[in-house]
Amino acid sequence: PQGSEKAKTFVHAFLKRSMPKMKDEAIQDMLTRKAVVLEHYPKKKTKPKRKNTKGFTAKQRRELRLFEIEPEQQRYSIFLPLHELWKQYIRDLCHGLKPDTQPHMIQSKLLKADLHGAIVTVTKSKCPSYVGITGIILQEFKHIFKIITKEDKLKVVPKLNNVFSLELDGFVSYIYGSKFLLRASERSAKKFKLKGTIDL
Length: 200
Hints:
GO biological process, one term: rRNA processing
InterPro entries: RNase_P/MRP_Rpp29-subunit, RNase_P/MRP_Rpp29_sf, Rof/RNase_P-like, Rpp29/RNP1
Function: Component of ribonuclease P, a ribonucleoprotein complex that generates mature tRNA molecules by cleaving their 5'-ends.
Keywords: Nucleus, Phosphoprotein, tRNA processing
Order of helices and strands: HHHHHEEEEEEH
CATH class of the largest domain: Mainly Beta
């Protein structure tokens, strides 16, 4: 009958479109066996490009003024609670600053500790104008400390050629800035030598 021929032609054309890689003989063979398994050729998915998760560059941070402390925030009293938190942090880090605690153990902990909130004093310097500056460390960079004094003045003190002292529970520690030219994050992973030349 004419209808069956149309159906046969339709099925043949349909299979040809559905399975473009298959030859006519193979399609005809499938039809005679009356067992047709349609194959599916999915389109290759393109992987979405990963977004760049890198943060701001140093130039962008400067332009956005991310690390600048506004003048109205430059008050010593605002940061006293930060100092209290820092003292508790150091006590926990050193398992309590007891009189019988070994000084070198505390010193080694302080070398790697976060100093934001510590009260420091410049005890020695090649530049006499820095000697005597005392205040809370607000920011630590690779080469400088930003310190807020009791007079509500923000001082930028270089580490190089300066010696700083900090006191906690009767224990006084000295920081030789020239040996401390590291960012806080780098310092926590650095191995410091117990002995070495001490100079400004």
